[in-house]
Amino acid sequence: MLKLAVKKNNKTAAKPAKPAKILNTEEYVVIDYPKNLETINARHYCVRMGASDCTGMDISINDQPWQPCRHAVGYWWFDWTSFQPGTHQLVARMHKRNGEYLISKRRRCKVS
């Protein structure tokens, strides 16, 4: 459910803000694995992403440059290697057919 925030001003009455127009609520991009705050105990990990109809997918790990992902068996995959122990943040970016992008929620995981 959308929530609207209205900034109140003592000089004038507050006017309700217009809600943002949502064009397509069926579009989505999500990082399936690793789960949020999951601990990874391997030296090689395959990140799995799900998305609605798109032309490509990228991933950014710890706010580093976007890296392309591969498509196979209905999901998008990124072979993650050479990572250091500690907490990491992953974000996926879906390439929409109209040239725009849709960004996933940030996913955090731990590597031991």
Blueprint of the fold:
Layout: E1 29-33, E2 38-40, E3 44-51, E4 56-61, E5 67-68, E6 70-72, E7 75-81, E8 86-95, E9 101-103, E10 107-111
Parallel strand pairs: 2-10
Antiparallel strand pairs: 1-3, 3-7, 4-5, 4-8, 6-7, 8-9, 8-10
Task: Produce a short descriptive summary.
The protein is an all-beta fold.
Any overview of this molecule?
The chain has strands spanning 29-33, 38-40, 44-51, 56-61, 67-68, 70-72, 75-81, 86-95, 101-103, 107-111. By secondary structure, the chain is mostly beta strands. The model is unreliable at 1-8 (pLDDT under 50). Strands 2, 4, 5, 8, 9 and 10 form a 6-stranded mixed beta sheet that branches. It is globular. The protein has a single domain, classed as Sandwich (Immunoglobulin-like). β8 (86-95) and β9 (101-103) form a beta hairpin.
What is the CA–CA distance across the termini?
Answer: 37 Å
What is the CATH superfamily label? Answer: Immunoglobulins
Tell how many strands the DSSP assignment holds.
Answer: 10
Low-pLDDT residue spans = 1-8
Name the CATH architecture. Sandwich
Averaged pLDDT: 83
Helix content: under 10%
Estimated share of beta-strand residues: over 45%
Describe the largest sheet.
6 strands, mixed
